[in-house]
Amino acid sequence: MAADVGRLSAVRAGGLTRGYHGRAVLDGIDLDIAPGEFVALLGRSGSGKTTLLRALAGLDAGVAGSGALRCPEPSRVAVVFQDSRLLPWARVLDNVILGLDGPRARELGRAALAEVGLADRERAWPSELSGGEQQRVALARSLVREPRLLLADEPFGALDALTRIRMHALLRQLCRRHRPAVLLVTHDVDEAVLLADRVLVLDAGSIVVDRRIDLGQPRAHGDPAFLAHREKLLDALGVDGS
Ligand SMILES: Nc1ncnc2c1ncn2[C@@H]1O[C@H](COP(=O)(O)OP(=O)(O)OP(=O)(O)O)[C@@H](O)[C@H]1O
Ligand SMILES: [Mg+2]
Quick one: pLDDT at residue 160? Predict the structure, then answer.
C-alpha cells in the first residue's frame, strides 16, 4: 500500500474529518498531491487550513478519515511554520541538522545553508538573525532532509513585502532543484497564483475550489491570465478583486 501511494502521490487523504467540540472543521476532505506538485491552500481565517496541514503532517491524533491519509514516508515530510521555530540555544548550523544522524550531517547542513544564502552565518545564534534570515534557516532545515512533501503554514506571513518577494524567488528555485511536493498555506492570493501549479480554497470544511494554474514560470502580476486566476480566487474567498 505504502509503495503504491509513493508511485502515485506524495500525499493522499480520503474523507479527512476533524471537529472540535462537536463542530466540524474538516468535513470529509479528499486530497491528492502528486510528486513534485506545488499546491497552494487559501481560505478565510478559521477555515481549517492549519488543521488540514497538521493532519497531513501526522501531527494531529484526533483526525479521522475513511480512506484516511497517508504519505509513503513520514520521515520525508518537512513542515515550516510562520515563525521559524529555531532553538534559541543552538547555533544556526546545529539548528539545521537537528535530529540528523550520520557523519555527513554537518556537510549536508552547510550545503543547505549555502542554498539559502547563509553559508557565512553557520555559527550565529538565531537571535542574531533577521526574521527573513530565520525563515531561510527554517527552509534549510527542511531541505536538508530532501523531503518528498513540504508542508508550509504561512511561512512568509510575518515578513515585509520586499523580503517576501525574495523568499518567493528562493522557494521557486529550491523547489525546481529538489522537486518536493508542496502544500503552501497562505492568505495571499497573489502568492498562490505566483507559485502554485494548483490552488485550493477551503471553506466550511470542504475544498470548494481546486484550480489549476497553467502558467509558466516566472509569472507576471500584470499578465491577463494571472489576473483572471486572481479574480476567480478572490471571488471564491468573497473578496471584491476590483
Ligand atoms: N485545539 C483546538 N481546540 C479547539 N478549536 C480549535 C483548535 N484548533 C483549531 N480550532 C478551531 O478550528 C478552526 C480552524 O482553525 P485553523 O487554525 O485550522 O484555521 P486557519 O484556517 O488556519 O486560520 P488562520 O488563517 O487564522 O490561521 C477554528 O475555528 C479554530 O478555532
Ligand atoms: Mg492557520
Answer: 92
Q: Whose CA is nearest to atom 27 of ligand 1?
A: 45
Question: Same domain, yes or no, for 15 and 31?
Answer: yes
Predicted local confidence at residue 90, as pLDDT: 98
81 occurs within a structural domain: no
Same domain, 43 and 140: no
Range of the domain at 107: 89-145
User: What pLDDT was estimated at residue 68?
Assistant: 54
Q: Which residue's alpha carbon is nearest to atom 8 within ligand 1?
A: 51
Q: Is residue 202 a contact partner of residue 48, using CB atoms and an 8 Å limit?
A: yes
Integer angstrom CA distances of residue 227 from 35, 37, 156, 161, 201: 27, 22, 22, 19, 17
What separation in Å is there between the alpha carbon of 75 and the centre of ligand 1?
A: 25
pTM of the model: 0.93
Ligand nearest to the CA of 18: 1
